[in-house]
Design a protein that fits this description.
By secondary structure, the protein is mainly alpha-helical. It is built from eleven helices and two strands.
């Protein structure tokens, strides 16, 4: 026969399990809800340590959606500060210099990073309303939104027609549903090549002019080589390096085998 304490303990455990299941069900509902301050307020009051593993994953995913919503607000705020286009130089300040320095100070980042953030905000707010909506709803990440803006900026500046921009936006968003940011960038480039082949060729020519090779010393007598090359040249270099590595590896094995044979002969003597 159960004691009174056993009964109380059992009832408490059952109550806790019921409460946990209710919370996990609520998280599942919040996950599919539109991102916003209401969802964020509710999710922050939940302790993820009280959830099972699946519930913790849904909690994490729900928070990620709210991050997109906050990033959309950030884009709007940057756009409000910097304006819809680069301003004219004022006094001692160059184009965008005053806004760039203010943003860099407020957000505690370098001026170059601040300028990049401003450029992305302008591109998104001026040309990609659907991307802004998707970001606000947590359907895409800030990184994907930035990739869409950066990869499209040159083509837009060179005169991509409004209907072409819409087609580019729809293609990028459709691809972003199940692909990484790198794959989205590749899709944007291929779409631009189809929509505006002349602009794409100009971008390719500029990229070729910017090819470079850098070497950085590393500890222990090593070094890192970084090369930005056209893909055909990069493949040629890679094949040559691979061939040299295979030759060096074969030589090392041969020398190691010879050394082992010599050691065995000496021991036998």
């Amino acid at each position: 026969m159960k004691s009174f304490l056993d009964i109380v303990s059992s009832n408490t455990n059952n109550s806790t399990m019921t409460r946990t299941r209710e919370v996990e069900l609520r998280i599942s509902q919040l996950l599919v809800a539109r991102a916003g301050i209401d969802v964020l307020s509710e999710i922050q009051a939940i302790d993820p340590m009280t959830l099972d593993y699946a519930g913790r994953l849904e909690y994490l995913e729900t928070l990620q959606k709210q991050t997109g919503w906050l990033d959309a607000l950030m884009q709007s705020a940057l756009f409000a500060v910097a304006g819809d286009a680069p301003g004219k130089p004022e006094g001692i300040f160059g184009v965008d210099e005053l806004e760039r320095e203010d943003v860099a100070t407020v957000l505690r980042m370098s001026p170059s990073t601040a300028q990049s953030r401003i450029d992305v905000a302008r591109t998104l707010n001026n040309h990609f309303p659907l991307v802004c909506d998707a970001l606000a709803m947590g359907e895409i990440s800030a990184h994907v939104a930035s990739v869409i803006a950066r990869e499209s900026a040159d083509a837009i500046q060179q005169g991509l027609a409004p209907e072409q921009i819409r087609a580019l936006e729809e293609s990028a968003l459709t691809h972003a549903e199940n692909h990484s940011a790198v794959q989205v960038a590749n899709r944007i480039r291929s779409t631009i090549a189809k929509l505006a082949p002349e602009e794409f060729e100009e971008r390719v020519e500029r990229a070729i002019e910017e090819r470079n090779v850098h070497m950085y010393p590393e500890p222990h007598g090593m070094a890192t080589i970084i090369a930005l090359l056209p893909i055909t040249e990069a493949q040629t270099v890679m094949f040559a390096i691979d061939k040299m590595a295979r030759i060096a590896q074969a030589r090392f094995r041969q020398e190691a085998g010879s050394a082992a044979s010599s050691s065995s002969g000496s021991a036998a003597s």
